[in-house]
Structure formats: C-alpha cells, structure tokens
Design a protein that fits this description.
By secondary structure, this protein is an alpha/beta fold. Helix content is 42%, strand content 13%. Helix 3 links the parallel strand 1 and strand 2. The N terminus is likely disordered.
Length: 439
C-alpha cells in the first residue's frame, strides 16, 4: 500500500482542495464502472449480517441500526442482522471468522495497514470484495484520502465517518477543583499535582489495552512530532529517520513524566478499558482518551454532569494538534453468500445524506461535513482546529504504518513504561524492528 502524504490528509479537511459536497452527492448515485463483472441482483428474501465494534455512544441502539431500518424500508426483500463484538477484540474476531469461513457479509474495518482492524492485510489475503470498478465506491473516496483506501490501485473499503481523537473531559469535576482545561504541558503537570492532592487523578488510561495506550501516545505525538515535522511518516518510509532517533523518544519520555507526576490513576498499568468511562463519569478522574463521539455516552448517562472534548496540549498552545482521519469504514466479505445485496447496502451507506445521518448517530463527523468545514454542534471546542485544518489537524499516525505490529509494540510498550519494566529506548527499538518488517 502506498504511503500517504500527511499534507494530503490535511487537505482532506479543506473544502478548497477537494471535490464539492454536491459532486459527491451526484457521484454516489452511480452504478458499476465500465468493465466490472456484474454481481447478480437478488430478488428473493435475503438476510445479510453487518458486524461492528460495540457502540459506545449515548443512544439506546447502535447507530447503524437506523441506517439498516431505512434501507430495509426501501429494500424489503433484504434483511440485515446487526452483531457487535468488543471494541478491543473486533479485529481479531473478524480475522478468525474470515479464516474459518463463517465471517459476516459486511463489517467494520479501519483505514490503512497499521491498525489490527485495518483492511489492507485482509485484502491482501483475498478476504475482501474488490470495489475498484464500483463507481459509487470509487467516488466516495476523496482524492486526498485515496492512499488510505487503495491497495495496489485496488479499492476494498468505503469510509463511513471521521472520529476526532480527543480527551473526554469531566469539566464539572475540573471546575469543582477550581481548574479549567489545560492549554500547555506545564499546565497539565501543575494540574496533575492539584488533582492528586484532592484524591483524584487528571487522566485515566487502560494499561492492559494497547489500543488505548497507543492512542494516548499518538495524541502526544501529534504535538511533539507532527507539529514540527508534518512529513515525518514519509521520511520514516524512506528510511530517512527512525522512531528511536526522532522526537518519538520525547513522546514516550512525556508519558514517563506524566506517570512520575501522578497524572494517571492508581493501578493504571493493570486497568482495563471498561474502567475508563465509569471513572470519568463519576469524577474520579477528569479525562480519558477516546474518539470524540463517545462524549455522547457520558452526557446521556450522567444527566447532571458536564462533559466536553478537548485536545491534550503540546508544550505550547500553538503546537497543539488534533488527530482526525476518515478512518472508520466498511468492507464486504468476498466469500459472502449474498454479495449483490451486500453491495447494495454499502452503496446506500455511501450516499452523503446517509453518511451524515450515520455520523450524527455515532457522534462523529461525516465525510461531507469534514469536506465542507462544518463541525457538529456537540464539538464547539474543536472548531478552532477544523477552522485551520491545514495547520491544526493531522491524520492518525498508525494508519500510515506498514503493519499492525508497530502499533501493538507501542501499546504494549507503554504498559511496560507504566510498570517501570521498559524504557523508551527499548519500546522505540521494537517499533522500528516491526516497522522494518514491512507490510
């Protein structure tokens, strides 16, 4: 898979650099491209299965359910069964089921190569339906995001929405301590001491979840690595730098600094992901690290609370960057029994109005909203970043890494940092070794 220009990803969020929303709306209505091998249209009753990670939003149902219901109204012969798997197990569950031949017809994937839910390795193993000749699928990929979705010039997934990676903040708990969200690293370290003195912690991380600790590290890297060098991943791909000999060392040193300052909750190294949301909801900690859409769950579950999303600051406010990428996607099982009906549903999802509705239910940002520069009303604190997207937003780094082992090494290595059994140099050396294995 070609490595993506980070500058190009920032252009994804700039309306001036991309196809207009109107063009997307028109193109999404197209049929199969010329030369494609037609997939049989099914007219009898059909049931297909859609698998997603467990929903963490504030509604009573997975947001895909509303999309399923509206699709079924227009296509009564096609019934879609929705199944969920735990967030941190979804990628492995899909791989296991694909290998066993009992995978769902359509399922959630992430962009690129570098996540354990990324589509690329599945496509290269022959598990995913080739969408290249489906005009509606090709037109759903913005020009500047093509390298996130094409593998050897083939298309295997369609983006569903965009999830800004943020701090979920209990601003009520901060206010009760006489604090407001920090804007510099120095303020963070000062707040860690004050919150600790009150018997709480500023942050909570799930030390046993590499996905959560890795996400936390990438948020720090957005400011320490990519604010200074937006093309860092291109340089790593060309072997012009390494994790060990770059500002990534400062990222891991920052995590150790936070640990030593008491920024994380007691027992962070052994904490699970399921402990994070109760802790921040109850005000035992003031922030956790997760996609922005999850703030809807906090607002729904704690009616008298005050919650918002923020960005972990860099050394200065000017250095602070938001991670936001069109990384949530769906792919079709090439061995599914009802590929024709499944493609029909995916084409329905690709229509801009339906993507807008899905993103609203997810609490995320739709592709069309990102292109137009509109920020959902529930994220006013993120507006300054979207307003200067070319400068203030970077793509999620691990989407650009050649395999999931790099990110896995980062996540598990941070658990070692939290226990004191690993050093930043050791973690970075392992990341470089995994990176050099290639795709």
């Amino acid at each position: 898979m070609k490595h993506t220009s980070r500058t190009g990803i920032r252009r994804f969020l700039s309306a001036a650099a991309l196809t207009s929303v109107a063009a997307l709306a028109l193109s999404a209505c197209g049929g199969s491209g010329a030369g494609s091998e037609p997939v049989a249209e099914e007219t009898g009753p059909v049931e297909i299965t859609l698998a997603t990670p467990a929903f963490t939003g504030g509604g009573t149902a997975n947001p895909y359910q509303a999309l399923i219901d509206s699709f079924h109204q227009k296509n009564p012969n096609i019934t879609i069964k929705l199944v969920e798997s735990p967030n941190d197990q979804h990628g492995q569950t899909m791989r296991t089921q694909l290998q066993a031949g009992n995978a769902p017809d359509i399922f959630y994937v992430a962009a690129g190569h570098g996540n354990n839910q990324s589509f690329a390795a599945l496509a290269e193993a022959g598990y995913l339906q080739d969408l290249t000749s489906e005009k509606w699928a090709a037109d759903a990929i913005p020009a500047s995001a093509k390298n996130l979705y094409y593998d050897a010039d083939k298309l295997y997934a369609v983006p569903a929405d965009l999830a800004p990676i943020t701090e979920l903040q209990n601003v009520g708990a901060l206010k009760a301590l006489g604090l407001k969200p920090a804007t510099t690293t120095a303020e963070v370290l000062d707040q860690c001491k004050k919150v600790r003195a009150a018997g709480k912690s500023l942050f909570a991380v799930a030390g046993t979840s590499g996905a959560n600790t890795g996400l936390h590290a990438m948020q720090i890297a957005a400011s320490l690595v990519y604010a200074k060098d937006p093309q860092w991943d291109e340089k790593r791909a060309k072997k012009e730098t390494t994790f060990a000999d770059s500002d990534w060392k400062k990222v891991l040193e920052r995590i150790v600094e936070f640990k030593d300052a008491g920024c994380y909750q007691d027992g962070a190294a052994g904490a699970g992901f399921d402990q994070l949301f109760p802790a921040v909801a109850q005000g035992k900690v003031t922030a956790v690290f997760a996609p922005a859409g999850a703030v809807a769950a906090l607002r729904a579950q704690v009616k008298d609370g005050s919650f918002d999303v923020g960005v972990i600051p860099g050394d200065t406010a000017e250095d602070t960057r938001l991670i936001a990428s069109p990384g949530n996607a769906l792919a079709v099982n090439a061995a599914g029994k009802h590929v024709g009906s499944t493609l029909k549903f995916l084409e329905y999802l690709a229509q801009p109005a339906n993507q807008d509705a899905l993103a609203k239910g997810n609490g995320n940002v739709s592709v069309t909203a990102a292109i137009s520069g509109k920020v959902p009303s529930q994220f006013p604190s993120l507006e300054p970043y979207f307003a200067e997207a070319d400068k203030k937003i970077v793509t999620q780094p691990n989407y650009l890494w050649p395999n999931s082992g790099v990110y896995d090494s980062l996540g598990t290595g941070i658990q070692g940092l939290l226990t004191g059994q690993a050093t930043p140099d050791q973690v970075l050396k392992t990341m470089d070794a995994e990176y050099d294995r290639g795709a």
